Amino acid sequence: MRVATITRTTKETNVAVTVNLDGDGTPSRIETPVGFLSHMLDVIARHGRVDLDVVSTGDTHIDYHHTVEDTALVLGEAFAQALGDKRGIRRFGHAYVPLDEALARAVVDFAGRPYLVFEVPIDREMLLIHKDFPFALVEEFFKSFANKCACNIHIDLIRGRNGHHAAESIFKAFAIALREAKTVVGSDIPSTKGVI
Question: Is residue 195 part of a domain?
């Protein structure tokens, strides 16, 4: 079973994540002080077919940045640990997902090299998704995940006017790309180098 548990405690946050890559997305316990983050983690679990147990607290009296960033760091590290040497995985995944007027594309490569390309229309970057959750935190989430998971992520918001729809289409596309990339399809290391 591809399972990992990671915890991280700082002066700003306390995060604990358990991930089961071979789950079905339910049941998932997701408890964060940021409602929209909890909603998006549920999206990753359900559409990525990953069992998640996430409990995080943070200095949300300041803002949501530290909690979102650190939750993504721990989630990425848990994914990396659960993937192990990546033997047999497809490695690559991609998806397009619409949500009403929004359309997003996500491409993932569990390459062992952290990199994020995050392209959104310039006028969306300062958009508030929900209360104190600026759209810029979506990019911070994926940057943190990519860094700790050591994966390459390309995200493009092709269109979208509603911040919630745009963000949710991005997270759903990412989840489906993850599901595809983590799928076991053989027994070898998916690299010409023989190691990832």
Answer: no
Domain boundaries, position 119: 3-182
- What's the structural domain count of the chain? 1
Mean of the pLDDT values across residues 59-74? 96
Q: Identify whether 27 is part of a domain.
A: yes
pTM for the predicted model, two decimal places = 0.96
| In-domain check, residue 116 | yes
CATH code for the domain in which residue 25 is found: 3.30.230.40
- Residue 191 forms part of a structural domain: no
pLDDT tens digits, 140-178: 999 999 999 999 999 999 999 899 999 999 999 999 999
H helices within the chain, ranges in order? 35-48, 65-83, 136-149, 163-182
Q: Is 142 exposed, middle or buried (0-12, 13-18, 19+ CB in 10 A)?
A: buried
Q: Give percent above pLDDT 90 in the chain.
A: 86
- Which region holds residue 51: left if phi is over 0, alpha if psi is between -120 and 50, else beta? beta
